[in-house]
Amino acid sequence: MHHARFATCRMGSTIVLALAVSTTGPWAQEAVEPIVSDATAVCLVCHGPGGTGLAAGAPAIAQQWTGSAHATVGVGCAECHVVPKPGTGRDIGNPRYVVDTQWDRATGLKSVALVADDGKPRERPDLWAHQGAEVVVNVSPRTCATCHEAEAREFHGSRHASAAQFVGSIDNFLGRYAEGPAAAISGCQQCHGSEVRVSRAADGESPPEYAADTWPNTGMGRVNADGSWGSCTACHSRHAFSPGVARRPDNCGRCHLGPDHPQAEVYRESKHGIAFRATEASIGIDRPGLQWVLGKDYSQAPTCSSCHMGPVAARGQSPGLPMTHNAGARIAWTLRPEVSVKPGAITEPDGRVVLSGPEQRRADMTTACQACHAPSWASNFFIQLDNAVDLYNGKYGRPAKAIYAHLKARGAIDAVPMNEAADYIYFELWHHEGRRARHGAAMMGPDYVQWHGFYELSKRFYAEFLPLARELGVNAGAGEDMVGFIDATLRGTEGQDWERYHAWTEGLSPEQSQRLLELEREAYGSSAGTP
User: Does 353 share its domain with 452?
Assistant: First the structure.
């Protein structure tokens, strides 16, 4: 919590804001002397502590800013909220103009084009002529890119920036229709983002109004009023924009938690999470910028950021890793869909790599692992992960997907999403239990692999999904066909899947029981299975 006292003095074209700051709490910062431009000084007359303007009731905004790195280099209210004048720089990069962002899902590439009306760039609908400047409330990554060009480019190429592009997905249908619009607005959109719409343009001294079903919104893939995608403040919370806040696991856990993607809970259970809680006060997580390098500035307590985005120190023959704002840059598998896959590389026509191929992504994550772990530890861990994902794909994911599709093809269930028991059972099988098992394996959460994962998968698949599929086939007059299709699907092309995954449902022979006992002894010790 910051307590600030302001005093100003002019130095050339800028104002130095002398500031006495006392700080307490985990994010305490050293006292600083913000550099305030003339334009930002005008803002602080009303918006600073003691101001009398529209936002005088929110003095914490200025207090947060005064403790930020932005304040020490003269980046204030005006530098972010005032849009450049027409003709300033390249129009495509000027956030006063609207752009059209497109995503080619086949190639993974995104493109950005300037929107024009009668040959002139279209101005964004939320411009507000205010106190002699043209300002916007909805600051987009295009403004951040003025200083943070590389970070903005990496983020733009990531799946995070595409998080709002799930129109037509079963998740969106579930929130919007099965649950209801308010659930989607206050739930789905606050993580995924949505299109920010202007319900009323600015009128004189009255600011524009954003539609209440789209704002406030700090969803990761938010479609901004200037047409750009993404929200930097989803992680770098206003107005301190602290890297320490962005690095904390709780920040990622704002969205990555719950029954379908419990990364926060898995991390908390894992050895990594335990180490972080034990050493958080001593690892310098609030250090600025690139001064927080794994294997150099801290160790023992990797956060989500450490493994997925943070810089890793060079060692021996390893050059280490640079920081990235593409959170998927080191992830070989995508564990989100019905059946996990390893996405290919994404490369711009000029050869610039947006996303490396899965082998390189795995190599990069291995580099992060080996900052703390021996090579054999890391390689064996990834073998365990791959085996768990292959088990899910082969035993549950592919068969369930094929059987569910066959139910629809035979008319055993209708085409309306999420209106029958089979819809929910199948959805939760891959979207809930299936993801939990996979994410648990990826992040060393054994309870999420087992009891929250594969146990729930097994129960739902054998005790709910398969019996219901057979019953629905009979009810649709296609019982024999359905039973035959299920049998063929579970057996695989040459019967290998049945022997590997499902033969136990027929019971075990004495020889098989003995072999099982031997396997248990090999895994748990020579006395396993003895009275």
Answer: no
The answer to whether 41 and 65 have CB atoms below 8 angstroms apart is no
**Spatial distance between the Cα atoms of 236 and 143, rounded to a whole number of angstroms:** 14
208 touches 128 (CB < 8 A)? yes
Query: How does pLDDT run across 474-496, given as a tens digit for each residue?
Result: 999 999 999 999 999 999 988 88
Domain span including residue 306: 243-253+262-372
Cα angle 296, 234, 174; round to 5: 125
Q: How far apart are CA 238 and CA 18, in angstroms?
A: 22
Q: What is the pLDDT of residues 204-263, one digit of tens each?
A: 778 999 999 999 999 999 999 999 999 999 999 999 999 999 999 999 999 999 999 999
Q: Same structural domain for residues 92 and 73?
A: no
Q: pTM value? A: 0.90
Three-state secondary structure of 15-47 = EEEEEEEEECCCCCCCCCCCEEEHHHHHHHHHH
SS3 state at 22: strand
- Please state the length of the chain: 531
Boundary of a domain, candidates 80, 113, 143: 80
Residue 225 in tokens: 């009023």
What's the rounded Cα separation, in Å, for the pair 84 and 275?
46
In the DSSP assignment, the letter for residue 256 is S
Q: Is residue 113 part of a domain?
A: yes
In a domain, 507, yes or no: no
Amino acid in the structure at residue 414: D
The whole-angstrom separation of Cα 381 and Cα 366 is 10
